[in-house]
Every structure is written in structure tokens, then in C-alpha cells.
Write a structure and sequence with these properties.
24% helix; EC 3.4.11.2; 5-stranded mixed β-sheet; Immunoglobulin-like; alanyl aminopeptidase activity; Zincin-like; metalloprotease; 31% strand; Neutral Protease, domain 2; alpha+beta; metallopeptidase activity
């Protein structure tokens, strides 16, 4: 029996990104998420309400949201119950009582709950994760549905309001500005608001027993939340972060958010992770000797490249990781370490001995987090810098980050942006560095 084509008024069950084929949904664009979460750390129980404001991109007789591992107990569309509701392993499919016209704004309210757990993926477990005493949320690229219903794809960015109530003995951090903190007996409610459009994978909540360390109050407030037992080590390790931020503002343009925070979880983590407005490290990354200086610079640089300027599809992840990796090299140069040129040649030599079987402009989902994407992405930028000169290169980086602030971008868009700002012929450079498996020779 032939496959039945989708009804033209149905929102598709995927956004069409082959790297995350079950993520994202068609038929609408989200403008805001309002999340009200009540969480009990001791038994990992969540009771929540999500209010999703969206606009139909065509008439909708049915649509879906990404939702995994929790149970929806009540759903309404503009206050009315849907005619049908189906919850599967990764989707909540909603049939409104009457079709939603194209261009119409509508509000979906979902009450839900359960014991949140990570989403299994080809890249490991993603999303809501219990710590030894608290919670860490790291969703890249497809773990956001582990804790709220959403259109989980970076191309559909939205404003967020996150309110979370939990035991008062814990500190809480979420994205954006803390607008309210109210304690009632043994529980405290924290409310955070993000006005800048944010990708769902960057939405995050961190819960733990932390002490706050203020690194800077101006011009960009910077804080560290760390367990009391390592707060002195953390203060030493993050002491240069203010200088890093100043360098990146000179190189990439103004810091795109209101503040920047770091959380040091009281657990070991494999790698640090970025979120909109903050980054998360494990206690194993903090030694008081600057052992994670490179990683601190990398995660801070994601504020510009990844968190503010976000790839439209996951195949262009080098636009996040290659740029953040190159920021590490710029900081090394600024702080008296090896120059970016020396580091570029060192990493080129190492990559030249590795398999030549990866195009970083489209690495494939299995290898999108391969270290060669990071390093060769940085080498692409260094090759561009060497070719067009420092003045043109840094003007290009700054204008790219500023003109595309809070937006979505593509590799083709970066190529066109670079070509408009340079008299050099860049076709061969971009083709050989991004879309050839063979490692090109660095220009001198």
C-alpha cells in the first residue's frame, strides 16, 4: 500500500533536519515559552505548566510538539480543549477543535509532570540530569523535550520566562535576568526572563548547593556559583574571565546579553557545556591552577557564536565550535601564551596525521561533535585571517556577530559576508577547508 502524503493542513512531525530527524515540528513558529515548574529534588518529581505562544505558518488542523518522558495531564488551545491528543515516545500531537488559520497567533497550555530523565540520543543522554545533590540541564542538540514541550530546533528561537520552585536550601540558575525570588517556608520560587530569542537546546536550569562569587559588576556582571569546598579554587581559575570578555568584545563586538554566569557542579563532568547567558563546568575542571583556562575561554566565546548567532541547521555546527575554538587561540595570544599562528600550525600538524575523511561543512550527524570539526573550523578562520589580513578579519568577525545578533545563520551566509568584505578570491579557501576531506595547507 503506498504511503499517504501528509495532509496539507497538518503540521509535520519533523522540521526536516537530517542531523536530528525526529526533532522539530512544522506548521508554526514559536514566539515565547512561559514555564512554571515545581520541582522536588529529593524524589526527582516535577509538576509543571508550559504556555507556548506561536503563529501558524499555514492552516493547521493538527500539529505537534517535542515532548519526551513526562506525562501531559491537560492541554488547551486558546483556552479550549483539543478534539484529540496523542502522546508518543517523543511527540505530543494535538488536533484543535477547529482549524487554526494561517498567520493566526495561538496559545497552547500544557500541564504535565513526572520524573524527568535524560533523552537517549546518538550523542549520549541529553537534557534533564540528576546530580548527586541537584540538577543539571544540558540539552545540545535534542534534549530540551526531557523537561518541557517545545519545537526543539535551533531555527525556531523564542523568548523565555522560567519560574521554578524548589527547596530553599538550593540555589537555582536559569537563563536570563532574575526578576523575582520569593521564599515561602521551606520552598523558594525563582523567576528568570530572557527577552532575546533563544534556541530550545540552550534553555537550562541548574540546581545545587552553591556559594555565589562575584567576579565583576560592570560593565558586564559576572558571577560564579560553586560548591563551598572549591570556591577558592574557582575564584583563581576564573580570575581572568573579565579580561577574556574584554578581548572578545574588542574582537567580536559587544557582549550580547545582560550578564554572564558560570556554574561549577559538585560532580565530575566529561566536558563543560554552554547555555544562553552562562556555562556549566564540573568540579573536575577546577584545580585552582588555571588548568581549564582554554575551556573557560571557549565557553565564554559561545555567547557570541552559538548562543547569539546560531546555526540554522546542525550541519553548520562549525559556525559555533570552530569560532569558539579560535577564540581560545586569540586568548592564548592575548595572555602571553603561544600565538594563534603557532597554535594553528601545531593543530594542523596533528590533524595531518589523522584520517582525512571529514568535511566540516557537513560532517554528518555521527561526527558533528568530532574534535576535527572544532580544530579544522578554527584553522579555516586562521586561513581566512592570513589571507585577508588582521584588520579585515576582525572587522568581518565583529560585523558578522553584530549584524546577525540573536538570529540564525548558515555557512553560505558566512561565505557571502566574507566575500563582501574582501577583495581576495575566497572561493577556493572556503571550498578546500569546509567541503574537502583532504586537509589543505595553511597559507603563509
Amino acid at each position: 500500500m503506498p504511503n499517504t502524503p501528509p495532509h496539507p493542513s497538518n503540521g509535520s512531525l519533523t522540521i526536516g533536519d537530517s542531523y536530528v530527524p525526529t526533532s522539530g515540528n512544522g506548521g508554526y513558529a514559536v514566539s515565547s515559552y512561559d514555564l512554571d515548574l515545581d520541582y522536588r529534588v529529593a524524589n526527582n518529581r516535577l509538576a509543571a505548566t508550559a504556555i507556548i505562544t506561536a503563529t501558524a505558518t499555514h492552516e493547521l488542523t493538527r500539529f505537534s510538539v517535542d515532548f519526551c518522558g513526562l506525562v501531559a495531564t491537560r492541554v488547551t488551545i486558546d483556552g479550549a480543549a483539543p478534539s484529540k491528543l496523542v502522546e508518543s515516545a517523543r511527540k505530543l500531537t494535538i488536533t484543535p477543535a477547529t482549524a487554526i488559520p494561517a498567520g493566526r497567533e495561538f496559545v497552547v497550555t500544557v500541564r504535565y509532570g513526572g520524573s524527568p530523565r535524560p533523552v537517549r540520543s546518538p550523542w549520549g543522554e541529553l537534557g534533564w540530569e540528576e546530580l548527586s545533590d541537584g540538577v543539571l540541564v544540558a540539552s545540545q542538540p535534542s534534549g530540551a523535550p526531557s523537561w518541557f514541550p517545545c519545537n526543539d530546533h535551533p531555527s525556531d528561537k523564542a523568548a523565555f520566562r522560567i519560574r521554578i520552585s524548589t527547596e530553599s536550601s538550593y540555589s537555582v540558575l536559569a537563563n536570563g535576568r532574575l526578576t523575582s525570588k520569593v521564599r515561602r517556608a521551606s520552598r523558594t520560587s525563582w523567576t528568570f526572563e530572557t527577552v532575546e530569542p533563544m534556541a530550545t537546546y540552550l534553555a537550562s536550569i541548574q540546581i545545587g548547593v552553591y556559594r555565589e562569587l562575584v567576579l565583576s559588576r560592570s560593565p558586564v556582571p559576572q558571577t560564579v556559583l560553586a560548591p563551598a569546598s572549591i570556591v577558592d579554587r574557582a575564584q583563581k581559575d576564573f580570575a581572568d574571565q573579565e579580561r577574556m570578555l574584554a578581548l572578545f568584545e574588542r574582537s567580536f563586538g559587544p557582549y550580547p546579553f545582560g550578564e554572564y554566569s558560570v556554574v561549577v557542579a559538585d560532580d565530575d563532568l566529561e566536558i563543560p557545556v554552554e547555555a544562553h547567558g552562562f556555562a556549566v563546568f564540573g568540579r573536575n575542571h577546577i584545580d585552582g591552577l588555571g588548568g581549564s583556562e582554554r575551556l573557560i575561554a571557549h565557553e565564554l566565546a559561545h555567547s557570541w557564536f552559538g548562543n547569539s548567532v546560531t546555526a540554522t541547521t546542525w550541519k553548520d555546527i562549525w559556525l559555533h565550535e570552530g569560532f569558539a575554538c579560535y577564540a581560545e587561540w586569540l586568548w592564548s595570544e592575548e595572555s602571553g601564551g603561544p600565538t594563534a599562528d603557532r597554535l594553528a600550525h601545531q593543530h594542523w600538524a596533528r590533524l595531518s596525521h589523522l584520517p582525512q575523511d571529514l568535511m566540516i561543512g557537513d560532517p554528518g550527524p555521527e561526527r558533528m561533535f568530532d574534535d576535527r570539526v572544532y580544530k579544522r573550523g578554527a584553522l579555516t578562520l586562521h586561513a581566512l585571517r592570513t589571507t585577508i589580513g588582521d584588520d579585515a578579519f576582525f572587522e568581518l568577525l565583529s560585523s558578522w556577530a553584530t549584524e546577525n545578533r540573536y538570529g540564525n545563520v548558515t555557512t553560505e551566509g558566512f561565505y557571502l559576508h566574507a566575500r563582501e568584505r574582501s577583495a581576495a578570491d575566497l572561493d577556493e579557501l572556503f571550498e578546500s577547508w569546509l567541503f574537502s576531506e583532504r586537509l589543505p595547507v595553511l597559507p603563509r
